[in-house]
C-alpha cells in the first residue's frame, strides 16, 4: 500500500485524474515471434489478461497515441568517452522514437540532475540541448534522474504515451530516492522505461550510500517526496523486480514497466538500439480493460497470447487508488 502521506500528496498533485475511480486501464504490449520479429494483426480475442488473477475482457485500441519522450543521459566522469557518441546519435530521437506527433525532453545527470531542454518538437532546440552534454563528477544518481524524468512526464496529458530512455551505466550511486519509489511512480503514471546501457569492461564499483537520512532529503523537482521502504519491493511488482534490483537497475525498471534494456559499445550499436526502441514503441498493442475488482492498491497484471512460441512483454501491474 502507498503510505497515507504519499497518497495525500499524489491526490493533491494529480487532480482530477487520480481522484477518479479506475474505469479503464491501458496496457501497452509488445508481441514478438520466435525470431524476434514484431507480430502484427492480432485481435482482442488473441490476448488473455489477468488482473490480480482475475480474467479481464480486453479491447485493442487501434488509435495511435502521441509520444512524450524523456531522454536521460549519464554525464559523469565514467561516461566521458561516450558523450560524443550520444551527441552524434541524438538526431534520431525526435523523428524515429517520438515521431511526427511526438515531443522530446532532455536531461543529464551526474550527482546532479539538470534539464537541458523542456518538451519540444523543435529539432534545432534538441540539437542545442545535446550539444551541452559534458562530463561531470564521479557519482551518477541514476534513480534521481529517472524520478525526475517521471516528474516531467506527469505534466503531460493522459492521452500521451509516456516513455523514458535512459543512457547510463546499469547501477546507481548515491541517489536520494529509492528504486522502490521510482518503480512506484512509474506504475502510477504508466511510464515505459527503456535502458540503453553503457557497456563497461570493468566491474562496477560498490554504489555509494547516501549519507542523508530519508527524512532530510529534498523532493525531486519540488514535487515528489517519498519516505518509502525498499522492503515493499517484495510485494510490489513481484519477485522479478526485487531479484534484478541489486545487480542492474536498468534491467529492473525496463522489465517491470514492460520495456527492455539494450547495450551499446560504439556509434553503430547505439543507433541500432535507438532504432530498435523506436520500432517497438510504434508497434505495440494498446490493451484496455475495466477492472472487475477496483480495490485500492497495487494490482499484478499477467498478459498472454493464445498462440505458442511468442514473446510477450507488458508492465507488471498498476495502481488503483480510489
Question: How would you summarize the topology of this molecule?
Answer:
Elements: H1 4-13, E1 25-32, E2 47-51, E3 54-56, E4 58-61, E5 67-74, H2 83-89, H3 93-98, E6 103-109, E7 113-120, H4 123-131, H5 142-153, E8 161-168, H6 179-188, E9 191-198, H7 238-245, H8 249-257, E10 261-264, H9 267-281, E11 285-289, E12 297-305, E13 311-314, E14 317-320
Parallel strand pairs: 5-6, 5-8, 8-9, 9-10
Antiparallel strand pairs: 1-11, 1-13, 2-3, 2-12, 4-11, 6-7, 12-14
Helix pairs in contact: 2-9, 5-6, 6-8, 7-8
Please summarize what this structure is.
This protein has 322 residues and is of the alpha/beta class.
Which key phrases capture this entry?
single chain, 322 residues, alpha/beta, Immunoglobulin-like, Rossmann fold, six-stranded mixed β-sheet
Characterise this structure.
Helices cover 27% and strands 26% of the residues. It is of the alpha/beta class. It has two domains: 18-63 and 284-320, Immunoglobulin-like; 67-206 and 234-281, von Willebrand factor, type A domain (Rossmann fold, 3-Layer(aba) Sandwich). The strands form three sheets. Strands 7-6-5-8-9-10 form a six-stranded mixed beta sheet, sandwiched between helices. The relative contact order is 0.22.
Number of helices: 9
Run of helices and strands: HEEEEEHHEEHHEHEHHEHEEEE
Profile the largest sheet: 6 strands, mixed
Give the count of structural domains: 2
Instruction: Supply Rg.
Output: 19 Å
What is the CATH homology-level superfamily of the largest domain?
von Willebrand factor, type A domain
- What top-tier CATH class of the largest domain fits best? Alpha Beta
Biggest sheet strand order reads 7-6-5-8-9-10
Average of pLDDT: 83
List segments where confidence is low: pLDDT < 50 over at least 5 consecutive residues: 1-21, 210-240
Name the helicity range. Answer: 25-40%
* Amino- and carboxy-terminal Cα gap: 12 Å
Global shape: globular
- For this structure, the CATH topology of the largest domain is Rossmann fold
- Tell me how many strands there are: 14
Q: Assembly state here? A: single chain
Coarse structural class: alpha/beta
CATH architecture of the largest domain: 3-Layer(aba) Sandwich
- Classify the beta-strand content into a percent band: 25-35%
Amino acid at each position: 500500500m502507498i503510505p497515507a502521506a504519499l497518497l495525500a500528496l499524489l491526490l493533491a498533485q494529480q487532480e482530477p485524474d487520480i481522484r477518479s475511480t479506475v474505469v479503464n486501464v491501458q496496457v501497452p504490449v509488445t508481441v514478438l515471434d520466435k525470431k524476434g520479429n514484431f507480430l502484427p494483426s492480432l485481435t482482442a480475442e488473441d490476448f488473455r489478461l489477468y488482473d490480480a488473477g482475475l480474467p479481464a475482457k480486453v479491447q485493442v485500441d487501434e488509435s495511435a497515441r502521441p509520444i512524450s519522450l524523456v531522454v536521460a543521459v549519464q554525464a559523469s566522469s565514467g561516461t566521458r568517452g561516450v558523450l560524443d557518441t550520444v551527441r552524434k546519435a541524438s538526431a534520431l530521437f525526435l523523428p524515429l522514437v517520438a515521431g511526427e506527433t511526438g515531443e522530446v525532453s532532455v536531461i543529464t545527470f551526474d550527482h546532479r540532475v539538470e534539464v537541458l531542454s523542456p518538451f519540444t518538437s523543435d529539432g534545432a532546440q534538441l540539437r542545442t540541448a545535446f550539444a551541452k552534454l559534458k562530463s561531470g563528477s564521479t557519482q551518477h544518481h541514476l534513480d534521481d534522474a529517472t524520478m525526475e524524468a517521471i516528474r516531467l512526464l506527469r505534466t503531460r496529458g493522459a492521452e500521451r504515451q509516456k516513455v523514458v530512455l535512459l543512457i547510463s551505466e546499469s547501477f546507481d550511486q548515491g541517489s536520494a530516492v529509492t528504486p522502490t519509489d521510482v518503480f512506484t511512480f512509474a506504475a502510477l503514471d504508466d511510464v515505459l522505461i527503456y535502458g540503453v546501457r553503457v557497456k563497461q569492461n570493468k566491474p562496477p564499483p560498490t554504489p555509494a550510500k547516501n549519507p542523508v537520512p530519508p527524512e532530510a532529503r529534498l523532493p525531486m523537482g519540488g514535487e515528489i517526496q517519498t519516505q518509502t521502504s525498499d522492503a515493499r519491493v517484495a510485494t510490489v511488482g513481484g519477485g522479478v523486480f526485487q531479484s534484478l534490483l541489486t545487480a542492474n537497475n536498468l534491467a529492473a525498471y525496463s522489465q517491470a514497466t514492460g520495456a527492455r534494456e539494450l547495450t551499446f559499445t560504439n556509434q553503430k550499436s547505439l543507433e541500432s538500439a535507438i532504432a530498435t526502441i523506436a520500432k517497438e514503441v510504434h508497434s505495440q498493442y494498446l490493451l484496455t480493460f475495466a477492472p472487475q475488482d477496483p480495490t485500492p492498491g497495487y494490482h499484478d497484471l499477467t498478459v498472454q497470447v493464445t498462440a505458442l512460441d511468442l514473446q510477450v512483454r507488458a508492465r507488471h501491474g498498476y495502481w488503483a487508488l480510489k
